[in-house]
Amino acid sequence: MIDRRGLAATILAGLLFGTSVPLIKLGLNFIPPNTFVTLRFSFASALIILLLRGRGWVQRDLFRSRQIWIIGFINALGYVTQFQGQLITSSSNATLIISTAALMIPILSLFYVHEKMEIRRGAGVLSGFIGIVLLVTRGQTVDLGSSELLGDILILATAVTIALVFVLSKDIVEQKGGRAVTGGIILVTTVLLLPTVGFDRNPSIEFAPVAWLYVVFLAVFATVGAYYFS
Q: Who contacts 150 (Cβ-Cβ below 8 Å, separation ≥6)?
């Protein structure tokens, strides 16, 4: 029997995650990339500490774990490459390439936790990659000197980090629970993102009101909200 509530929550999480790519592209017109992603996670962390701390989202002993810091570093790296990549590639390409994370998870699981992959499943993963490559390239020859290609490569790096975070956090989620690990990853990611702000060309927090709207929406709905329902 299908768990309708669980299915609805998963669909909602997917929709919330899906809104992030076009909003990031719009927000980058106003905010430097590293500042943007750091503000997003800073607001998300503030929300977790102020409103969700008593609901199991924060476990202090978790921050003594090397694993949570490794996962947080990978997550932070992935968001930096995403925001940098979206500066120079299209939202449609970014969405398609990020979706390959779902195809990478069974491959990484094969090597990391030695999960078996059936031939049928492997063929599905391969055909999925081929389909996405054709959609991104539009069936045309790739211009190796284009800035869009560099952006696509950065987004591909993001997809790899998403898959890595999923696979590497599996064990710790079983031990500590999903909400505690989610809260821990967001908080650690925020701490690790802070130094990146200094690498922006024109770091500033004087933005148009609509820019702050993008930051808050991404923090509340596409970060905390999406993780909450996932």
A: 85, 88
- First-to-last CA distance in the chain? 20
Question: Looking at residue 141, what DSSP letter applies?
Answer: -
pLDDT digits (tens, 9 = 90+) for 72-84: 999 999 999 999 9
Residue 17: CA count within 13 A, CB half-sphere: 16
Query: Using an 8 Å Cβ cutoff, are 168 and 70 in contact?
Result: yes
Q: Which two tokens stand for residue 144?
A: 């190796």
| Tokens 């669980």 belong to residue | 6
Q: Give the C-alpha separation, 45 to 193, whole Å.
A: 12
* CA nearest neighbour of 112 among 167, 157, 166, 72: 167
Residue type, 54: G
State CA 89 to chain mean position distance.
17
- Phi, psi angles (nearest 5°) of residue 89: -135, 170
What one-letter code names the amino acid at 224?
V
Mean pLDDT within 27-52: 96
pLDDT at 136: 76
Q: What are 164-200's pLDDT values in tens digits?
A: 998 999 899 999 998 999 999 999 999 999 999 999 9
pLDDT in tens, 206-221: 788 899 999 999 999 8
Q: What are the structure tokens assigned to 135, written together?
A: 């959609």
For residues 52 and 59, what is the distance between their CA atoms, to the nearest angstrom?
A: 11
